[in-house]
Design goal:
four-stranded mixed sheet, binds S-adenosylmethionine, 25% helix, seven-stranded mixed sheet, 13 strands, elongated, Rossmann fold, VC0802-like, alpha/beta, 25% strand
């Protein structure tokens, strides 16, 4: 990124970038899950500052209320850290800020209900102090301060941790447009054992799932589900789909070649959610090259790339969002 300096702040890094540089748009962008332009920094130990919440909220109001942020979100520099003291501090600080920005900042209950292009005041608080700035969720690459998503689990059983991954991917999709609605028909490549399938079905979507391996028996006879147990490369579509999800393991370029082949069966504007598996590849350069190859394949196949991110549920993989437009 060409950063002139970098300081660790809990789970985050405070970096000084060259003027005009944007952390997510440069070549290292895929490695930045969430970012915020820090316009207000108060390095301190909040536990040792008497009246911290009041002082912090007054300073934020003085600095930012004129810019009328839509809402205020406060996250933690050390997510999940300690005894909940910082969690309570973050919540109190948010509450006090909302009182101090009465004309503009709305007490939204759910971060995902924001518009992705409406600027919010994001603050991060923790043992390193308070860091804040105004940005839209799309600029930050997430609706929540810090980018960590705690989504309510969809009803019922869970088959694999991948269910949470597609839930996060759909939440994130809203940064770039309207995700597939109720009743949308998904084509799912590499579905076994079926964590993502179940999550989609629980959301009122229909799924045509393909995998060499069987699905979890709990999915047998599920409403809205068709399953083909075979190699994706031998499967031919006979209908059109509203969205495509691919979580196939193995060679990621071969997986994407199947996405491209089957994208011909997608309706105009259909979403594609693709997990780019990076197992066996090491280092920034190699990962960037792999990502670049997928983007080239996407372009050649007329698929419009919206974003790539490393979600909190991703391990050695990235999630890509694309759309197929028939005019492209
Ligand atoms: C990471 S798992 C998928 C997990 C799944 N998304 C879930 O929610 O439980 C990857 C799957 O891709 C399948 N797969 C990989 N290559 C395939 C191919 N060419 N044809 C069919 N299935 C394939 C594997 O059998 C495996 O079940």
């Amino acid at each position: 990124m060409g950063a002139a300096s970098s300081k660790e702040l809990g789970a985050y890094h405070l970096v000084r970038l060259p003027a005009g540089a944007s952390p997510r748009s440069g070549p290292a962008g895929i490695f930045v899950p969430w970012c915020l332009p820090v316009e207000h920094a108060w390095p301190c130990d909040p536990g040792k500052v008497e009246g911290f919440v009041e002082k912090a909220a007054s300073a934020l109001a003085r600095k930012f209320s004129g810019r009328r942020p839509r809402t205020v979100w406060v996250g933690m520099l050390h997510p999940g850290h300690g005894d909940g003291w910082f969690k309570r501090l973050a919540s109190n600080l948010r509450g006090r800020c909302l009182q101090m920005f009465p004309d503009s900042a709305m007490p939204l209950a759910e971060a995902g209900s924001q518009r992705p292009d409406e600027a919010a005041l994001f603050c991060m608080v923790g043992a390193g102090g308070l860091y804040a700035g105004i940005a839209s969720p799309r600029e930050c690459n997430g609706f929540y301060a810090g980018g960590i998503v705690h989504l309510p689990k969809s009803a019922g059983k869970s088959i694999s941790r991948a269910g949470a991954k597609i839930a996060e991917a759909l939440h994130h999709a809203a940064l770039h447009g309207e995700p597939p609605g109720m009743g949308a028909h998904w084509l799912e490549l590499g579905a076994s054992p079926g964590g993502m399938t179940l999550e989609l079905l629980n959301r009122g979507q229909r799924v045509t799932a393909i995998d060499r391996a069987p699905l979890d028996p709990r999915l047998a006879g599920a409403d809205g589900l068709s399953f083909f147990q075979r190699d994706v490369s031998t499967w031919r579509a006979e209908e059109k789909f509203d969205a495509l999800l691919c979580d196939m393991n193995g060679d990621p370029l071969e997986a994407f070649a199947q996405v491209r082949r089957l994208s011909l069966y997608l309706r105009d504007g259909a979403w594609i959610v693709f997990t780019l598996k990076t197992t066996g590849r090491e280092g920034m350069r190699e990962l960037q090259d792999l990502h670049q190859k997928v983007l080239e394949q996407a372009k050649a196949g007329g698929l419009h790339h919206l974003a790539t991110s490393h979600l909190s549920g991703n391990r050695r993989e990235f999630t890509l969002w694309l759309r197929r437009h028939h005019s492209s």
